[in-house]
Amino acid sequence: MNWWNLFLSVLLIAGHTQLWVAFVNRVHALPMPHAVLKHVRHLHDVALISFPIVLLWCLGVSGPRLLTYGRWSDLSSGWIAVIAVCSLGVAGLVISTLRHQWRPSPRAVLSERAEVFDIESQLGRRPVGEGPYRSLATLPWNEQFTLELSEKRLALPRLPRAWEGLTILHLSDWHLMPTIERCFFEEVTDYVSAQSADLIVFTGDLIDDMACVEWFPHTLGILDAPLGRYFILGNHDWEQEADVIRECLSSHGWQSVGSDVRTIEHAGHRMMIAGDETPWLGDRPDIQGATETDFRLLLAHTPDHFGWARRQGVDLMLSGHNHGGQVVLPIFGPVYSPSTNGVRYAAGTFAKEQTVMHVSRGLAGRHPLRWRCRPEVTRLILERDTA
Predict the structure, then answer these.
(1) Which of 71, 102, 133 is the last residue of a domain?
(2) pLDDT tens for each residue of the chain, 387 residues long
(3) Strand pairing of 261-266 and 269-276?
């Protein structure tokens, strides 16, 4: 056995996998129907399984027999081209891993702490219902039925001095569906309602099954905040009955800002709250009417709009959509993230120029599996950046 050639073959397989993952991530960032995306994932699955078999057989066992005494110089021009492409994938994997390992916490994050609640233990059972992908919810070591309540203090350059300590409760990606029983979401709501906040926002993907609209009065409907509750919808809501979801949540006191701008006043200053549900719903919000002194808060379902937000002078952008990857591998980090930026903005806090963005890991997902990536609700405490 030529162990060196085996190692190189494994690297090529990893590079091939990285390229497919990058492709799937970016396709899932587009406004495509679930049925089309499902076929893309099936193609991805077949490619990931078949390529290692073909590579090891055609190059390692037969042909040039690289796993024994063969030489790479004996490869055909076609296989050389394949290897060159896979090598690009290896480079991408290395860059992604290094970025995950050494991404520094932005200066805008002054402090952070988290508290974990085991909802499964609180309920005395795992609240798995009769819905799609329920087998994933029953897997051991699945962290889906825990909750991380995190608190972050953020420094923002244009925050009015009178707003020091202003709190925002950031919720995202609840994906209400029968696979996870209603009692899980009710228990989360109980924890959330105990958190004091001046403002509550929800950044999309509320419903995966329209039957769960009936859960609103017992979950999001009971939350309240002095400065109001604001929401946008996401791609999963787009796949359901978006107008019905919007109307129903609005009937429980939440205000929709999808493709819109609302302005509130607090302590003598104005906050502009805008919502961006593109590319699935509506249009970009028109925030050009904001004055120089208005604090600009953008709710955008996907963090892919970070660049646009910076160009618009947004102070704080809140997003979800990527779920933190749901599964985070040791060393490599998250793998799947439906974004044009891949896993770069899978979750966490990011800052560039005057714009700070927080990306929530969300609470659930169509595939109820979480490993090293707990469901999240975040309480943000805003401070003035005096540097």
Answers:
(1) 102
(2) 788 999 999 999 999 999 999 999 999 999 999 889 999 999 999 999 999 999 999 998 988 898 888 888 889 999 999 999 999 999 999 999 999 998 888 999 999 999 999 999 999 999 999 999 999 999 999 999 999 999 999 999 999 999 999 999 999 999 999 999 999 999 999 999 999 999 999 999 999 999 999 999 999 999 999 999 999 999 999 999 999 999 999 999 999 999 999 999 999 999 999 999 999 999 999 987 667 778 999 999 999 999 999 999 999 999 999 999 999 999 999 999 999 999 999 999 999 999 999 999 999 999 999 999 999 999 999 999 877
(3) antiparallel
Are 82 and 149 members of one domain? no
Task: Quote the pTM value.
Answer: 0.95
Domain match, 314 and 173 both: yes
Q: What is the arrangement of strands in the sheet containing 199-203, beginning at the earlier edge strand?
A: 109-118, 146-156, 376-384, 166-171, 199-203, 229-232, 255-256
Q: Give residues with Cβ within 8 angstroms of 45, minimum separation 6.
A: none
Q: Are residues 246 and 368 in the same domain?
A: yes
Domain that holds residue 260: 109-384
Q: Are residues 369 and 267 in the same domain?
A: yes
